[in-house]
Amino acid sequence: MKRRDLIRAGVLTGAVAALRPPLARAQIAAPPSELTPAQSGVDASKDLAAPGWKPLFHDEHQNETLIVLSELIIPATDTPGAKEALVNRYIDLVLAADTHENQRAFLNSLGYLDGESIRRYKAAFRYLSREDQDDLLHALAYPIGGSEWTGAAPPADVGHTHFEKLKQRIGIAYYNSQIGTRELGWDGNFTHGVYQGCEHPEGNHK
Amino acid sequence: MSRIYMPQDPLQQTYDAVVVGSGATGGWAAKQLAEAGLKVALLEAGRAVSPTEFTEHTPAYQLKYRDHSPEIVRTRPIQKQCYACMEYNYEWFVNDLDNPYSTPPDKPFTWQRLRVLGGRSLVWGRQSYRLSDSDFKAASLDGYGDDWPISYADLAPFYDIVEKYVGITGAAEGNEMLPDGQFLPPMKMSCGEVLLRERVKAKFARTVTIGRAAVLTQSHNGRAACHYCGPCERGCRTFSYFSSPFTTVADAQNSGNCTLITNAVVSHVNMDNASNKATGVTHVDRLTRQVKEVRAKSVILCAQAMESTRILLNSSTREYPTGLANSSGALGHYLMDHVVGGGASGQLREMKVRPDANQPQRPNGIYIPRFRNTPSSKKHSQFIRGYGYQGEGGPEFNFAAEGYGASFKGAVKEGAYGIGLGAFGESLARWDNYIEIDSNLKDAWGIPALRIVMTHGDNEAALMDDAAAQAAEMLEAAGAKDIKMQVRVEMPGMAIHELGTARMGNDPKKSVLNAFNQTHDVKNLFVMDGASFVSSACQNPTLTMMAVTVRACSHVIDRFRKSEI
To answer: What is the DSSP letter of B447?
Structure first.
């Protein structure tokens, strides 16, 4: 996620009351059908927390696996983690509307995790002990380098690639949630004064 | 010139001028002509826009998909390639299904556009740079292509007018390739950017300056200074960046001489063949699909480079069988769009500043003006012309941190101090890059659509190769680590700086417009937008487009005063 995504996330943005009445004269408001929900003022931030929520895309096992995995990747610390941020529900919502290609890719990555789990531990990922879950994730979380003995190139790093894809979805879901913006420290204001920039003397920047 | 205001059916009168398009140039044309007393009809293909639909202060978590909507792509698969087309504002962008165009399969072109009052001025990048005299005379200096029929001195007074009205923040640098202008106080640079400026100056004698942007750093012409919230492309409730609906178009309407007609999708210019004069335009009502006509003594196309030319191509008559005002055959040719895709980024580890979600967000970056093939540098062996960079340096949250768990969560907040430069290179004017009418394709209003044929060539590729290496070298000089180069030639259209297809020139056999944006063939027909550019230079073009429009309007006003139109 780059800075632009963060700006989109609203983390870097802020609100100021209208400082003066609009300059536009004789501008007629558009019909609602030609406005985005955001432009119409729709606030969807509570939708995922609705009681009786059921996944649109995932089956129960996939959903439970995603809850376990996302909380391992972004755990509750002194701040809430992925589970409380309903990362699983958000990813389910996006995937339900996504392309078949993206849907398939995500399920492949989630399936890979279970496949490796069963191969190594004879049980699906969500049923593993915390220790085994950590061992498996550590095997996937870091890229494999080439041989330091012969200089041979590294093998195709299928596991790490799947891990990164899952982690990226979880990261976008978490850091764009209200909990995620608080985690980054946003105070909820849209303005923070004038950009000040560098005030150091020449040659002394820190 | 008619001075009697007639409050009647807007379609039942004859205007002095009909202006097609309400964006950066159309707004200026409407303002200049209406304030001079001409009776103007301003036509916009889209709807009106209201500040109530601005979303710059809406956090992403209030959006259904938190601004990662997979749905936009269904109606806007092309528009979504634009960084500014997002879940917040996608309705401002055209529906690609209603607004098709074709390309050869091996020559993709991304055409990113808005149909709403103000057009792309609502979401533009706001970077505003003058062209230099070397740009206007580029052909004389290196032998490629054609000079403009105007010099920097011809345009300078009009740059002044536009800058004083719009409000451009920037710093004077005295750089030979980037003339200074009428600037509001500059925005500040970050520590990393100042470091880059100092070291690049010392080692390469090149200029790193703060971006020149159409964003107010102090209250100006009734608009408030920027409040540094960040995402201008979602609108601005303090109108601190320049967009036409709340400035030029509002002025035109306030003059009492301008009638705004929205939802008017112009199909063609109407002609009186006997007198060889344009009599107005025909448009399709976007909502009712009714075909209507607006009559005027002069027709001024400001519809966007390719849209203006499309209207002319769709206006062919027996006298002009290959498109109106196309006796030269040049109409549609010499399409340009700045080449992008070359650059570099890295990290400044000596900087100790951490990312902070509660910092003012500067809607501007840094700029490095062209330093290749300038009057004071030697000719480069691999390419002609040059490129400029836009860039930025500052602390960022590190969402790409490695690993997982509590350590990952901490590393995201710890952040990194990134710095990057991305080049915009000159796109050479080539006959082989062109648009034409696709006889098998119509838009949702039955208007024949365009076939766009454009590739970037060897010179553009060589510019991006050099831009990547030079960016890496400059970042290295600033002490950056983990430097990564981007060495690509992105598809044409990606810079969203489409230019040419109705070029200016002194020779009617080789150009469509004269030096005042008047068609050589039809004296009361004008094209005042990026279509008129002879060469692209490498600077962001909107400021020049606006200055060219104001200059051309002065000419139109003169002609009216002398009763020559």
So the answer is: P
- Indicate whether this model's pTM tops 0.80: yes
Listed by number, the residues of chain B in 158-197 with a beta carbon closer than 8 Å to a beta carbon of chain A are 187-195
User: Is the CB of residue B116 less than 8 Å from the CB of residue B94?
Assistant: no
Q: Is A140 on the interface with B (CB under 8 A)?
A: no
Q: Which of residues 108-137 of B touch A (CB under 8 A)?
A: 117
Shortest distance between the Cα of A14 and any Cα of chain B, in A, equals 5
Whole-number Å distance between alpha carbons of B529 and B350 = 46
The number of C-alpha atoms within 13 Å of B4 and in the hemisphere containing its C-beta is: 4
The two three-digit tokens of residue B31, written as one number: 């303002």
Task: For strands B366-368 and B209-210, give the pairing.
Answer: antiparallel
Query: Using the beta-carbon criterion (under 8 Å), do A178 and B59 form an inter-chain contact?
Result: yes
Inside any domain, residue A48: no
Q: Do B63 and A44 touch (CB under 8 A)?
A: yes
In a domain, A37, yes or no: no
- Three-state secondary-structure class, residue B142: helix
Percentages of chain A per state (helix, strand, coil), in multiples of 5 = 50, 0, 50
Burial state string for B399-426 with b = 16 or more CB within 10 A and e = fewer than 16: bebeebbeebbebbbebbbbbbbbbbbb
Chain B residues closer than 8 Å to A183 by CB: 409, 413
For chain B, say whether A62 makes contact (Cβ under 8 Å). Answer: no
ipTM of the complex: 0.91
From B478's Cα to the closest Cα of chain A, the distance in A is 11
Residue B99 reports pLDDT greater than 70 = yes
Q: In what order do the strands lie in the sheet with B17-20?
A: B258-261, B40-43, B17-20, B299-301, B525-527
DSSP B303: S
DSSP B80: G
Average pLDDT over residues B543-564: 96
> Does A14 reach chain B within 8 Å, measured CB to CB?
yes
How many of the other CB atoms lie within 10 Å of CB of B244? 30
Q: Is B477 an 8 Å CB contact of chain A? A: no
* B69/A192 Cβ within 8 A: no
User: Scanning the structure block, which residue is given the tokens 């007074």?
Assistant: B157
Residues in chain B closer than 8 A to A102 (CB atoms)? 70
**B456, exposed or middle or buried, with CB in 10 Å at 0-12, 13-18, 19+?**
buried
Full residue range of the structural domain in which residue A106 is found: 53-144+155-185
Q: Do B403 and A4 touch (CB under 8 A)?
A: no
Asked if the structure places residue A129 within a domain, the reply is: yes
Number of domains present in the structure of chain A: 1
The three-point CA angle A176-A181-A184 to 5° equals 120
C-beta of residue B149 within 8 angstroms of C-beta of residue B182: no
Neighbours of B430 (CB within 10 A): 19
Strand partners, A24: none
Please tell me the distance in Å from B376's CA to the nearest CA on chain A.
Answer: 27
| Average pLDDT, integer, range B330-355 | 96
Contact in structure between B249 and B117 (CB atoms under 8 Å): yes
| Residue A42 domain-assigned (yes or no) | no
Rg over alpha carbons for chain B, rounded to the nearest Å, is: 23
Determine the distance from the C-alpha atom of residue B215 to the mean position of all C-alpha atoms in its chain, rounded to a whole number.
15
Strands of B135-184, DSSP E = 168-169, 183-184
H or E element, residue B57: none
Distance CA A130, CA A128 (A): 6
Q: What is the pLDDT along chain A (206 residues), one digit of tens a residue?
A: 444 444 333 333 333 333 333 333 444 556 668 999 999 999 999 999 999 999 999 999 999 999 999 999 999 999 999 999 999 999 999 999 999 999 999 999 999 999 999 999 999 999 999 999 999 999 999 999 999 999 999 988 999 999 999 999 999 999 999 999 999 999 999 999 999 999 888 777 77
Beta-carbon-side half-sphere exposure of residue B185 (alpha carbons within 13 Å): 12
